[in-house]
Amino acid sequence: MSFWNLFRRAPEAAGQGASPRADISGGTVVYSLDDPRVIEILRDGFLSAAGFTVNPETALRNPAFFRAVSLIANSIGMLPLNLIEKETKEKATAHPLHRLLHRKPNDWQSAFDFRALMQLRALVHRNAYALIVRSRDVRLGRDKIIRLVPLDPKRMEATLNDNWTVSYKYQPKTGSRIEYRASDIFHLRGLSLDGLNGFSLVEQAKEAIGLALSAELAAGRLFKNGSFVGGALKHKSKLSDEAFNRLKASLSEKEGAENAGKNLILEEGMDYLQFGQNARDAQMTELRKLQVEEIGRVSGVPRPLLMVDETSWGSGIEALGQFFVAYALNPWFEAWQQAIERSLLTDDEAERYEAKFNPGALLRGSLKDQADFLAKALGSGGHQPWMHVDEVRDVMDLPEREAPQSILGHNGGPALDDGNSNA
């Protein structure tokens, strides 16, 4: 539905299911600007120069954009997120928040489900929200967080009040609007202009995504219909005015990506001279690669991770992983960690605990590189050891096993376990 069609409807159609805020006069329905349908179009109807309405749903149909945001969201979802004791660097497993962040935030989602959903929403909808559900702990004499319930960002309005407090107004699917205090909402956002709302990748990459969608549609129409209309029309003498008008109307009907590949109806014995273009030449490969690059530039995901530039695979995969973590994920690590400190920890708890992601799985090199590093960490080659055997085993996801005396190094530090000693 176009923007203006929303405001202009026939009287008989307007009488069925019309908004209670609609004013019907002269066969036209005029909606108030606070009507949910108007708000949805004003907020999500991002019409690109290519003619596509680019919103989160249509943007995710583009493979490159879907790949970029799913890489970030899935990485945030799959990497371990732990609550850590700042002083000892041990996992604070006794704290109820650790279980919510690491295993089960609510009754129907795993930690992966919750974090991937929140991250995806922050990327495409500017913000991600979760309701903080608390329960009174009689033993501790204070409230504790028992659930984190994700809320639809399209139904949330965040407001910075005159007294510098933030209030959140949420419209559920049924019932009246609910106003929450800032202490009741876990708010995740990235880079921001106003300090309250983040940027949406869909908004920032609207033109690149719109052009990519248009190129995909044009290529699909091309292969469906055979070839683009490209060439010259040749007439043996002068074309009559009537034939010219018919031909002009026929040509105008074939403009745009949706009409790519349709055939012409020639007038008065005209000849069509094609300029040597065929389906293979018209794939617009370079244009489509350029749009992948634009989407990678906005999201921070390296192009090879978007499945282009195949020559970068092999030895360069380690550098790609480091690049991805450093420039695409690290800002979001900080956003998550500081949002947790702001919303889910008290001031006293924030002095004692911190939330930390562990990106080690993405940064591991080859097995040979890992072996060299861990050997040095245990004191191989005369290096001062800085890791214990059990810490190395933990890195490799092996159970703890206290190092026996027989594998201690000459300098008193532990050396590599050769696997032949008994625990």
Descriptive overview:
- The structure is a single chain.
- With 423 residues, the protein is α+β, with helices and mostly antiparallel strands.
- It folds into four domains: 3-44, no CATH class; 45-226 and 282-365, no CATH class; 228-277, no CATH class; 367-423, no CATH class.
- Helix content is 39%, strand content 16%.
- The chain is built from 16 helices and 14 strands.
- Strands 7-6-11 form a three-stranded antiparallel beta sheet.
- Strand 3 and strand 4 form a beta hairpin.
- The longest helix is centred in the C-terminal third of the chain and has 27 residues, at 317-343.
- The radius of gyration is 30 Å and the shape is flat.
Number of domain units? 4
Helix-strand pattern: HHEEHEEHHEHHEEEEEEHHEHEHHHEHHH
Coarse shape: flat
Query: What strand line-up does the widest sheet have?
Result: 7-6-11
First-residue to last-residue Cα separation? 71 Å
Helix content: 25-40%
Protein structure class: alpha+beta
The profile of the biggest β sheet is: 3 strands, antiparallel
Unreliable spans are 1-27, 404-423
Q: List the total number of helices.
A: 16
Q: Count the beta strands.
A: 14
User: Average pLDDT across residues?
Assistant: 77
The Cα radius of gyration reads 30 Å
Strand proportion, as a percent range, falls in 15-25%
Short description:
This protein is of the alpha+beta class and 423 residues long. It has helices at 3-7, 11-14, 36-44, 56-59, 63-78, 96-102, 111-125, 201-204, 206-225, 241-252, 285-299, 317-343, 347-352, 360-363, 367-377, 389-395; strands spanning 23-25, 28-30, 46-47, 53-54, 81-85, 127-137, 142-151, 156-160, 166-170, 178-181, 185-189, 231-234, 271-274, 353-357. It starts with a helix and ends in a 28-residue tail after the last helix.
